[in-house]
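Repro:
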Amino acid sequence: MTPEGLTRFASRYAVGVTIDHLAAAVFARGMTVFARIDHAAGAAAAGLSIPPTELLIFGNARGGTPLMQAAPTIGIDLPLKALAWQDDSGATWLGFNDPAWLARRHALPAACDANLQAITASLIAVVREAIATG
């Protein structure tokens, strides 16, 4: 089951390699990587375990700022995030919040459509590059 608003792609790489590829693709497109969070390492530090799971937080102020000007609440969902995780069968997935879903969630006006389309195209491009690299 895929949660509402989540777009996901299968990756042939391990979680860490998938996030490495994603970070490289993000950087190559002039976006900023703000943080990389290894949830499995955090769980291990607490004496717990989960399958490999990493989050990359990234973005570009030129794309996100106009959205925040239109609806400041979208700041809870920006910068952009992509999550790589390993499921119970050992498959790796790479997912992100669908910008159209975010637009509905925050009631963005139609004036933001061009920005949302550009953000969506960039997200899909970097994700496809990350899962196809190599």
